[in-house]
Design goal:
With about 625 residues, the chain is of the alpha/beta class. The chain has three domains: about 160 residues, Rossmann fold (3-Layer(aba) Sandwich), CATH 3.40.50.300; about 80 residues, no CATH class; about 350 residues, no CATH class. The protein has 28 helices and eight strands. A six-stranded mixed β-sheet has the order 2-3-1-4-5-7, with helices on both faces. Helix 18 runs antiparallel to helix 20. The longest helix has about 45 residues. The chain starts with 5 loop residues before the first strand and ends with a helix. The structure holds guanosine-5'-triphosphate and magnesium ion. It is a multi-pass membrane protein. It is found in: Cell membrane.
Length: about 625
């Protein structure tokens, strides 16, 4: 029997506790899951039937409390106010019980029934922490279900808890300071509920309340503040912290580890000043080399096979109208470039990025670089979007939403646009590293690093706004789950297969038509003052650069089509390949990145960033094209 009414469940908890993992376990919907705080920046919904109940689940961004009203907290509070969920599923990390409990205590005071998912019990067991969940449930006055979202345990019990509703009344309420409690009682006598009284006392926002209540609250807040010599919010927070501590200590059975575990030792190395940087450099280099060799190997295999069994036989056998012929040929070369060049490189890249994201390493890199980043008036946290940028700029720009100030978001997004994403890496690796030399390929990454440092320094001075301190949550290091990595890679490859591939095939066919009617020649010659004049490139590169705005890897695919071969050394000199790759890496974010920039920053800043990248690209690659021949002639 299909249930009529859906049970609205909101997943709420601290960052990186496994809310999204649980959400995708329960709904089967793929959402981003990574081991760094602030993965979920946008609300995700999922509707699913489990036996006899229809669940309407919402995955929300991670928050630490309901006190400071930062953007994520506002998202959660607005959701609670507007959507009025039937149940709050509070996900907590068993390895960090005490800190997680602060938010739990706040949630329990609201009017909505709370069910606690005591997540990561697998990890807790590994480090010797056991939690008496029955005693815990008794203390909280609600259901507590031990789960491991990653391993998928405890889900049935969770379903059972959803089916057996309880009222919010019996849930634990923090016992505040005597002084505060007596005021709460007075407010209750004036007709308010306890949680309303607590909220009014902590924030003092009496909008929509009677004058009596507003006056009483104002007097009470003043008295509490003056007698404790601290803001009311701080006093309430102090009470919650000590209660969280008490509860955690009474339900936790801790077996102290006798010696430093291997994991802790690795962790120490990762953030130590000397080894830390060496490891960071080694990881980045290893990643690029792996992509280059694995991708290159697969490419050769696929391109060769495609050439021999499809491209050559088909073009040889085809005798049709020249227009048809050119369309078929261009489309086939497009497909070959997509399958042969893009898939091998991008897939290898995605797998490696997924490993990195899910290992917890990103927060170590952020911690390691925190001091340096502050010289550029950025927080170490800004490192996370930049490293994500090596995969794809779009989620990387989205993740800048986790930064606290607009200034940091603008500067970091600009820098993300200068990080060679996997699509740009394809151009660098498949063109320059393959046909010029691997060192030439790697030198482009060094060049981009130098450019990023200069731009960061300049923007640090130009873009106004405050610099904010922010606590960086250190997530535990963990061996990434195979399933998570496969799922994540597939999620991203799907985007490529469903969105980029049709675009590529249609684009190739359109190119064929445009070529046939002579439009490409016209466009190429219009742009030739820039391409051939200033950049010293063959004129057909103009078409490739324009198509590269749609998607960066299309620059290379179009280049292959225009050059009539994927063996680029037949059509371009090494310097031309180098200049083309540098230009493609810097100029204009792709359309999808522009759309994301607009969402995060608005049109004006997006336009500035785009303009900046175009000017930079023209400047840097033009200078290379002009100066290198002069130097060569002097040698
Ligand atoms: N060992 C273990 N790892 C888990 C468990 N649940 C989630 N994880 C891992 O914890 C990390 C964070 O998971 P997410 O689901 O992205 O966490 P989140 O709470 O949605 O995080 P934000 O969106 O940043 O607030 C990922 O690396 C998961 O694989 C679990 O039960 N056990
Ligand atoms: Mg999440």
């Amino acid at each position: 029997m299909r249930p009529e009414k859906a049970l609205k469940v909101a997943l709420i908890g601290n960052p990186s506790v496994g809310k999204s993992t649980l959400f995708s376990r329960l709904t089967g919907i793929g959402v981003l899951i990574s081991n760094y705080p602030g993965t979920t920046m946008e609300v995700a919904h999922g509707r699913v039937v489990h036996d006899d109940i229809l669940l309407d689940l919402t995955d929300l961004p991670g928050i630490y409390s309901l006190d400071t009203l930062n953007p994520e907290e506002k998202t959660v509070l607005n959701y609670l106010k507007e959507e009025k969920p039937d149940i709050i599923l509070n996900v907590i990390d068993s390895t960090r019980l005490e800190r997680n409990l602060y938010l739990t205590l706040e949630l329990l005071e609201l009017d909505t029934p709370v069910i606690v998912a005591l997540n990561m019990v697998d990890e807790a067991a590994m480090i010797g922490i056991q939690i008496d969940h029955e005693q815990f449930a008794g203390l909280l006055g609600t259901a507590v279900i031990p789960t491991s979202a990653q391993k998928g345990t405890g889900l049935e019990e969770l379903m059972h808890a959803f089916r057996t509703p309880h009222a919010a009344d019996g849930q634990r309420h923090v016992r505040y300071d005597r002084h505060v409690e007596s005021y709460i009682e007075q407010l209750k006598a004036m007709g308010l509920r306890r949680n309303e009284a607590v909220l009014l006392l902590s924030h003092g926002n009496t909008e929509g309340r009677s004058e009596d209540i507003a006056t009483a609250v104002a007097i009470m807040r003043d008295e509490i503040t003056s007698s404790h010599e601290a803001p009311v919010l701080e006093i309430l927070a102090g009470n919650r912290y000590s209660e969280a501590g008490l509860i955690a200590r009474s339900v936790m059975r801790h077996k102290p580890a006798s010696q430093m575990s291997l994991r802790e030792r690795i962790d120490d190395l990762l953030v130590s000043p000397l080894w830390g940087f060496a490891i960071l450099a080694a990881i980045m280099l290893a990643m690029l080399l792996t992509v280059f060799f694995v991708g290159g190997f697969l490419e050769e295999l696929i391109v060769g096979t495609f050439d021999q069994y499809i491209l050559q036989p088909v073009t040889a056998a085809l005798s049709a109208h020249p227009l048809i012929q050119v369309i078929v040929e261009y489309t086939l070369i497009g497909v070959q470039a997509g399958f042969g060049i893009v898939v091998p490189y991008i897939m290898t890249f995605y797998v490696l990025m997924a490993l990195l994201e899910n290992s917890g390493y990103l927060t170590r890199a952020a911690f390691l670089l925190d001091e340096i980043m502050h010289r550029f008036k950025l927080h170490g946290r800004a490192m996370i979007p930049m490293i994500l940028g090596f995969g794809c700029s779009v989620p990387a720009i989205m993740s800048t939403k986790a930064l606290q100030t607009r200034r940091e978001r603008i500067v970091t997004s600009t820098l993300v646009c200068l990080v060679p994403c996997s699509a740009r890496s394809i151009v660098i690796l498949d063109l320059v590293a393959s046909f010029v030399s691997i060192w030439a390929g790697l030198s482009i990454y060094v060049l981009m690093l130098i450019i990023a440092v200069v731009v960061a320094w300049l923007l640090g001075r130009i873009v106004k706004g405050e610099e904010m301190g922010l606590v960086l949550e250190m997530v535990p290091l963990r061996v990434p789950g195979v399933k998570d990595v496969v799922e994540k890679t597939w999620m991203q490859m799907k985007e490529f297969i469903y969105v980029a591939f049709p675009l590529l095939i249609a684009g190739s066919a359109v190119l064929g038509v445009l070529q046939y009617v002579g439009f490409l020649d016209l466009m190429n010659s219009l742009l030739s003052p820039i391409t051939t004049g200033w950049l010293g490139l063959p004129d057909f590169t103009a078409t490739a650069l324009i198509f590269g705005i749609l998607r960066k890897e299309m620059a290379l695919e179009t280049l292959a089509i225009m050059a009539g071969t994927a063996n680029f050394s037949l059509a371009m000199t090494p310097l031309q390949m180098y200049v083309f790759a540098v230009f493609t890496t810097i100029y204009m974010p792709c359309i999808a990145s522009i759309a994301m920039l607009k969402r995060v920053l608005g049109w004006k800043d997006t336009a500035w960033i785009t303009l900046l990248t175009v000017v930079l690209a023209l400047l840097v690659s033009g200078l290379i094209a002009q100066i290198v021949p002069v130097i060569m002639s002097l040698l």
